[in-house]
Amino acid sequence: MGHLLRYFIIIVGFFTAISMLGFDLTKITIVLGALGVGIGFGLQGIVNNFVCGLVLLFERPLREGDTIDVNNGGSVGVIKKIGLRSTILETFDNADVIIPNADLISNQVTNWTLQNRQARLSVPVGVAYGSDVSLVSSILIDSAKNHPKILKSPAPYTLFMALGDSALNFELRAWLPDADDRLSVRSELYYEIVQKFAEANIEIPFPQRDLHIRSIETDILTNMSRKNDKSEQEVKDDIVTTSAG
């Protein structure tokens, strides 16, 4: 609202000064109208951003200091300034991104701090088949409860998400008082979880595939069994002969 008041005072002051200097405001209005028609087509983008800036300032879906995500990860950071034409977003890499206000109105924007700064943290974890699922869940919850930045209420909890191709997939969910701490807390939890899994002999698997051969030709089996008795050159000769045949 402070921005609007400043612009309003400037505009009123401009026309008041012109009137005091003796200019006819009616003629000036006609001239401005003619100029507006001429340059309006070339300033559609600017006018669009200006109108969207007014919408942002009046409706206030975004405020200076809010943490936002534009286009699902396209630009993530904290709003430094909302102007009539554009908004300045400071990313977590300390870079300033200038976003036209029209983009903030027409695109999807996630405001992590519109109502309050609390945010839910999700930590996906996979363990090897054969692991004690109750112990896994207990370790995940204890790791969250012992972290000083995780809220006690709502209490942390785990979900058994899926039987994956190579792992049993769990997800730890907890609430933070400040959305800006999500990355650092997730990293610290992973350190804690990996250490506790190692102490409990719980394996974190890597993607793997088992190959089962149901049938194989007798000639191939014979050649494979004879490879150990042949020199490298003889094996190469057999491969060339087989390919030629």
UniProtKB/TrEMBL annotation:
Q: Where is the Mechanosensitive ion channel MscS C-terminal domain?
A: 123-204
Residues covered by the Mechanosensitive ion channel MscS domain:
46-113
Signal peptide location: none
Q: Known Gene3D superfamilies for this protein?
A: 1.10.287.1260, 2.30.30.60, 3.30.70.100
Give the principal location in a single coarse category. membrane
One of the record's GO cellular component terms:
plasma membrane
Q: Which domain of life is it from?
A: Bacteria
Write out the biased-composition intervals (Basic and acidic residues). Answer: 226-239
Give the record's family classification.
Answer: Belongs to the MscS (TC 1.A.23) family.
According to its UniProt record, where is this protein located?
Cell membrane
Q: What sections of the protein cross the membrane?
A: 7-23, 29-58
Q: Does the keyword Hydrolase apply?
A: no
Q: Which residues form the Mechanosensitive ion channel transmembrane helices 2/3 domain?
A: 4-44
Q: How does it sit in the membrane?
A: Multi-pass membrane protein
Keyword set for this entry? Cell membrane, Membrane, Transmembrane, Transmembrane helix
Name of the featured protein: Mechanosensitive ion channel
Task: List the residue ranges of the region (Disordered).
Answer: 225-245
Coiled-coil stretches noted in the UniProt entry, renumbered to this chain: none
Single GO term (MF): mechanosensitive monoatomic ion channel activity
**Is Transmembrane one of the keywords?**
yes
